[in-house]
């Protein structure tokens, strides 16, 4: 259940968790301000909940100063309310998925019936179904499939040979990617990191150079999420260099190159290099124009629409609400885009509107995101912190009702 401090019924904010971490170090607010590179007034505003501590770059700066994991500030993972039956169902499979991930690399020791049941065509169908549930924001259904699916994929990789082995590892990679996204959406970042390691390892076993490179996209994201920007940048630069040696500009290679430029843009945005971030975004836009369509190679959605979506996300990362709002007005999401992707976009739009002082419109965007993907929205650290800040300063009807569903009231 959420922890309530003396906040008039509002759950503990990121700023209050920050204050507790600071107290653990026996630092003054001035010391934290100096160590993290912020003003004393900013630290006070964050700790008192008057300013939303939702931007990753700022959370990471405080986490590095206090030598803690960012989730110690954001409070993830969050426990769904008892009344949230869908949320309870979504997290019910986390332990089973975790066990399957821990079994990776160990002898499968399959029973005879498991060996006899190996059917790559059927496994392909099940992997597609699990990913389809995830993209449709049906996290409970996706999670329920994953433990047995991952076990069956691990068995297949152990018992088949030759070209079938490479195919089995490609399916296992997709299964691990699905598990990674499922865990990440629910706020289980440590388990998602474990899944990412499995993605990287299994992708190498496919003997497909582009598949292995695609896994590096996720690996770079792990370092980015803990503020290790140099390491993330090295992985991204290495991938882009290798992609530059690909002789044929296949759609898969172009899509992958564009996706890495987007990741580079995010890394630059969070590390305080807005001009570099904008340059990488423009290069991604050029790749999307070369591609001429939206694709989903290696589970990495890339194309003109996705570049436009990131055009909103990046200024949000940098706290540039007006730029993000202006760009959001030009984004047109096709109906074929998944509810998961739609909801994430409206979360970014909501945060942009909040930064721009348009609180009523921000609430509308968050409610729209919640309708599309209830659990992913309720578990989103930025939504929870932003809505909590709005409630502390402006309690009213729908806003409080959303706060209750999020578990921040």
TrEMBL record:
Record InterPro entries: Cro/C1-type_HTH, Lambda_DNA-bd_dom_sf, TPR_rpt
According to the record, the segments passing through the membrane are: none
One Pfam match: HTH_31
Q: Which residues form the HTH cro/C1-type domain?
A: 18-73
Q: Which residues form the signal peptide?
A: none
User: Superkingdom, according to UniProt?
Assistant: Bacteria
Q: Where are the TPR repeats?
A: 343-376
Q: Name the keywords, alphabetized.
A: TPR repeat
Stated name of the protein: Helix-turn-helix transcriptional regulator
Q: What is the lineage of its organism?
A: Bacteria, Bacillati, Actinomycetota, Actinomycetes, Kitasatosporales
């Amino acid at each position: 259940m959420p922890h309530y401090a003396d906040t008039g019924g509002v759950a503990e904010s990121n700023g209050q968790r920050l204050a507790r971490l600071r107290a653990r170090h026996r630092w003054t607010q001035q010391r934290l301000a100096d160590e993290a590179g912020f003003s004393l007034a900013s630290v006070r505003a964050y700790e008192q909940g008057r300013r939303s501590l939702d931007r990753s770059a700022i959370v990471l700066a405080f986490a590095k100063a206090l030598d803690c994991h960012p989730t110690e500030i954001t409070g993830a993972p969050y426990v769904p309310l008892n009344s949230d039956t869908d949320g309870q169902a979504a997290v019910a499979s986390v332990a089973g998925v975790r066990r399957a991930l821990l079994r990776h690399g160990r002898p499968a020791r399959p029973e005879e019936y498991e060996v006899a049941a190996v059917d790559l065509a059927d496994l392909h169908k099940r992997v597609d179904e699990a990913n389809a549930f995830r993209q449709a924001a049906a996290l409970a259904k996706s999670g329920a499939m994953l433990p047995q699916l991952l076990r069956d994929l691990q068995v297949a990789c152990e018992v088949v040979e030759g070209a079938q082995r490479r195919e089995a590892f490609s399916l296992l990679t997709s299964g691990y990617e699905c598990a990674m996204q499922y865990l990440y959406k629910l706020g289980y970042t440590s388990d998602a990191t474990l899944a990412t390691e499995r993605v990287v390892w299994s992708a190498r076993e496919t003997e497909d150079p582009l598949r292995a490179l695609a896994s590096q996209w996720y690996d770079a994201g792990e370092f980015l999420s803990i503020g290790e920007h140099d390491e993330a940048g090295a992985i991204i630069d290495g991938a882009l260099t290798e992609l530059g040696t690909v002789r044929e500009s296949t759609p898969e290679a172009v899509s992958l190159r564009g996706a890495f430029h987007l990741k580079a843009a995010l890394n630059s945005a969070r590390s305080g290099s807005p001009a570099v971030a904008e340059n990488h975004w423009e290069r991604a836009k050029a790749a999307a124009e070369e591609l001429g369509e939206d694709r989903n190679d290696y589970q990495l959605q890339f194309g003109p629409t996705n570049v436009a979506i990131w055009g909103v996300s990046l200024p949000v990362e940098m706290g540039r609400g007006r730029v993000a709002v202006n760009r959001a007005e030009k984004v047109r999401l096709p109906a074929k885009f998944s509810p998961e992707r739609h909801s994430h976009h409206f979360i970014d739009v909501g945060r942009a509107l909040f930064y721009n002082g348009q609180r009523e419109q921000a609430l509308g965007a968050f409610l729209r995101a919640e309708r599309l993907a209830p659990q992913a929205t309720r578990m989103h650290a930025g939504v929870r912190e932003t809505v909590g800040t709005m409630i502390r300063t402006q309690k009213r009807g729908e806003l409080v009702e959303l706060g209750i569903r999020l578990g921040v009231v």
